[in-house]
Amino acid sequence: MKSNPAALVITVVIAALALGAGLIIGYLLRKPEGQEARSGIHGELTPVKLLRSTTENETLKECSDLMDNPDIKNYLTKARMNACRAATCNVELPRNYVVYHLDTDTIVIDGNLNEKAWRDVGWTESFVDVRGENFPAPRFETRVKMRWDDSNLYVGAYIQEFAVWANRTLHDTTIYQDNSFQVLFDTEQSNHKYKEISINALGTVADIMLTRPYMDDGEPLSFWESDVLRAIQIDGPINDPRRRNQHWTVEMSLPFKQLFAGVTRENEMPKDKEIWRTNFVRSEWQTEIVGGQYHKRLDLDADWWVWQSPGVANIHLPDRWGLIQFRNASVNSTSFQPDNKWVVTNALLEVYRAEKAYKAVNGRYTDNKTLLQLPPYIFSQRCIRDLGIELDWGGFRITAKSAEKSLQDGHTRTDRYVWFGDQKEQF
Ligand SMILES: *[C@@H]1O[C@H](CO)[C@@H](O)[C@H](O)[C@H]1NC(C)=O
Ligand SMILES: *[C@@H]1O[C@H](CO)[C@@H](O)[C@H](O)[C@H]1NC(C)=O
Ligand SMILES: *[C@@H]1O[C@H](CO)[C@@H](O)[C@H](O)[C@H]1NC(C)=O
Ligand SMILES: *[C@@H]1O[C@H](CO)[C@@H](O)[C@H](O)[C@H]1NC(C)=O
Ligand SMILES: *[C@@H]1O[C@H](CO)[C@@H](O)[C@H](O)[C@H]1NC(C)=O
């Protein structure tokens, strides 16, 4: 049976509004803490004005003058967006970037980003504070470009900086304790076996594979080697306060062979239109000049600036990174195109987060979907055909079937692993 899209949208809007109103009323009606105890000791309390029971129409009329309030408008717009997504399945995209194949051009790894291959392509957006765009804008500009050929992913970064310094010279040490630039790749969008490569202005590298995010008890495997070729260019001296710098640039060539380590896949290089979860990070410490040398200010924490904000101060949440798409097409000829897994992946992650939130309050997971706070696109039957939750050994396993019948079922489970079809993870 085909449902009427307008009716669907209206139903969903009403449901969303009712939920919102319910939450607000529930909040207003909550019992003040410790009321009984206090009334016993101190006698009379100011009487609480009970809400009159009113019809929906009366309630709406009572607050009609509040509809211009920006917070309420904002809330309503969000509710309407969520409602519309139930009909269009047009789930929000994070920041994204199209990586164009080099074709006949070449890139020499010398730290200069001035070859034709680099000039031809645009930059990513400027980095923002790790916690989000509403936090103070970074003091310095950072942007990235990418290209690929049949063996490597190329990354070029522009890093604005007045005081270029670096101290760490040993491989696989705590490079982020210097001012550093980091690249993170989850090639399968599975949240597991993702790679992190950090580099400082001396070109010292720390490269690790994470079995899982740290929040899911992941372990950093530092024996993994990226085999990255890299070069740094600095517009002046390093570690020398006598001359202020303007910027440094990083140029990297990352072999696909290493980026695919630990994951099962058919192709040795990305396919046209392949999408990866990716983020870029910059750690920035403030310095002072002591005895003619830069000294790290130990009384201040580092600033963390990123391409796609995960919304919290934790860069190890691959499900909140940006997306890059590999294209074997002429430069600037296309924009990012989400694939048919995107809506299913999102639904899985929404249910994953709702389960974690439910457990934080109730002490256990649930297999009752109606107890989880989920956006309406998951239930509208247009995007997701069926959602299943199974509980086992104190964990959960979620299955989402796409409305597109040809797509394999998507799954996720307690440790944030996401996969389609048969389970692929080894070790
Ligand atoms: C509520 O208001 C609408 C529009 O003004 C009206 O059509 C409807 O009959 C009203 N409902 C009740 C229960 O009064
Ligand atoms: C592609 O677009 C970028 C801007 O995003 C521009 O700088 C670049 O020159 C364009 N490349 C070509 C080949 O037109
Ligand atoms: C780098 O190390 C040197 C030698 O230990 C030290 O003097 C300097 O302050 C360090 N640089 C920063 C920015 O901390
Ligand atoms: C890119 O497209 C060309 C022409 O269609 C093809 O010969 C080449 O194999 C493709 N390369 C990749 C990496 O897909
Ligand atoms: C799920 O929870 C809802 C709301 O509490 C309840 O009405 C419903 O019976 C539950 N379903 C199952 C299968 O337990």
From TrEMBL:
Q: InterPro entries, alphabetically?
A: Carb-bd_dom_fam9 (IPR010502)
Residue ranges crossing the lipid bilayer per the database entry: 6-29
Q: Which SUPFAM superfamilies match?
A: CBD9-like
**Residue ranges of the Carbohydrate-binding domain?**
109-195
The cross-references to PANTHER family, in alphabetical order and at most eight, read: CARBOHYDRATE-BINDING DOMAIN-CONTAINING PROTEIN, SIMILAR TO POLYHYDROXYALKANOATE DEPOLYMERASE
Q: Which GO terms describe its biological process?
A: carbohydrate catabolic process
Q: Does the keyword GTP-binding apply?
A: no
**Which Gene Ontology MF annotations are present?**
carbohydrate binding; hydrolase activity, hydrolyzing O-glycosyl compounds
| Protein name from the UniProt record | Carbohydrate-binding domain-containing protein
Keyword field: Membrane, Transmembrane, Transmembrane helix
**Could you tell me which Pfam families the record lists for this protein?**
CBM9_1
